[in-house]
């Protein structure tokens, strides 16, 4: 066994907090060892190829994957489905060409040779997904970034940004009375829309103008600051629909309890965050990463850490982690590393030699892969589906991506459905799928799709102080929110504990010149 | 991204630790060589303007930043590469034998549209070291290159600056061919770049 290598900080897990922290520490001159037991970056945020994605979903307890299609209304409506038209001979040829496709076709469509055109089409669709599996970058935990938010600001100031490429979500929809409507993104949209009377439009404009500069307009909301935001909205003369648009589609409050209790100050802050992001990179507020948002961010911050000397070992299986007087000692794969501090991702907490206090929540999610857009546009877009009486108690969000972000091959679309509430049930997500497919059917006469419903665990330390003893800290897995912004603050807190007084990502960091 | 507007080429340099990847880059871009080996720290990517067939091209040459040491380069590193230079040390047979796995890893991770015709260049570095220490003959290396689809082969010394210019010129020329083919496929608007310093982004997208 080689002599132990020593480091200032060892980090186990390549989730987003870990990677942002690693980059900050290396930049501050710390010797960083960054490990992951997996052979890829991003932990839960990883983007996967189609077969890997389906296998990952299938491995989650109580998950479901199904394939369905809607029949064409008439022969003239028949639209070619990439790789999914043709007879059973064509299917046989497809399966012969991609042997691993047969397994998924049998699993999702049954072993028998499909008889009806619909079943045949579904089988061919599944076969075509697996045959082109490598052209997918599917995320179990997809996310978006505010154009003006902590992550984008950090990408600019740290110069990590140039490693990455983004696209703007071009449309934002809102479900109301079983219709999908566009959320207005500015003055023009509000006054062009024909559904609202002029007075309502003026009230909405007045509210949005105030919220955009809410800190300068404290007089307008100060006395309501700690009272519920929903009451404040009602008091602005906004109709229930506009209040719901603001709460769910603009402030991104999807959880019914949170919508009822969020304070006016917090609600305005979140409204402001959205409005303030409009116009920075285009008309809408949210960015998504090419090839996946979270996994690409993790890799970009890791590269930054490596450029500043961080040592990376993926696929490292620790045999033991011990806390000694000299530091934390990590042994595995015939190597020994000693570090003054150890930070681990929550999923690795069980390997620690100290008791850990964690909170675990489980959130249901769903993913659609279809040959037709679902949200009423072929563009990258997002939709807020607020709570609905008699149906879902909590709202959900949907993000539609496509080949535009290299999420899937051309001609296909993916929609990820996210609930912020641990109270949302599997049935709530299935109901959301039904409503989304109903919207899809209105726009498209024939389509074929795969639905996956699954539950992801989100783990975080019980208290904000993530240190479990003087050397060892645990950081959260993704919060389950549709935005990832909280990871910046968490990484900064850890950084400030480990490097008191040092600057977290100093501005205009230039990689050192080689002398 | 149409009409040959993109004049930015991403070149990645792969090979075992210590074969001289960073030195080759530095020799080519800065005409500098450091005799002191340290595992790469501080190298990100270097850019150099080159004139290829009367066209001005910015080559962006990406270093592995040491992440190759434990095979921990993420898929993002490989993405969008227009050319891949595979480097080995002619005095280290293991580094030559590993070219196979570096090439396979590249094709797997970068997932180029046309893997058969993707432009690789093979560089046998450190030919300045005395002949008796040499472990890989030119013949053996060229046979490997031929077998992998006629990959252009160069023997270089980053230390003496031998053949480095020629190797990178071939990289630029072949990347440009590849890039011209790929452009035809792009139906989508250009992605958004987020950067404080925009010198790279400017040459990528704002020239017309």
TrEMBL record, chain A:
Q: Name one Pfam family in it.
A: GDI
Q: Which InterPro entries match?
A: FAD/NAD-bd_sf (IPR036188), GDP_dissociation_inhibitor (IPR018203)
Q: Which family does it belong to?
A: Belongs to the Rab GDI family.
Q: What is this protein called?
A: Rab proteins geranylgeranyltransferase component A
The lineage is:
Eukaryota, Fungi, Fungi incertae sedis, Chytridiomycota, Chytridiomycota incertae sedis
Q: Which domain of life is it from?
A: Eukaryota
Q: What Gene3D superfamilies does the record point to? A: FAD/NAD(P)-binding domain, Guanine Nucleotide Dissociation Inhibitor, domain 1, Guanine Nucleotide Dissociation Inhibitor, domain 2
UniProtKB/TrEMBL annotation, chain B:
User: InterPro entries per the record?
Assistant: P-loop_NTPase (IPR027417), Small_GTP-bd (IPR005225), Small_GTPase (IPR001806)
Q: Which family does it belong to?
A: Belongs to the small GTPase superfamily. Rab family.
Keywords, A to Z, come to: GTP-binding, Lipoprotein, Nucleotide-binding, Prenylation
Show the NCBIfam families listed in the entry. Answer: small_GTP
Keyword Phosphoprotein belongs to the record: no
Which organism does this sequence originate in?
Polyrhizophydium stewartii
* Pfam name, any one: Ras
Q: Which domain of life is it from?
A: Eukaryota
- Mind telling me what this protein is named? Ras-related protein Rab-7
Q: Which PANTHER family match?
A: RAB FAMILY, RAS-RELATED PROTEIN RAB-7A
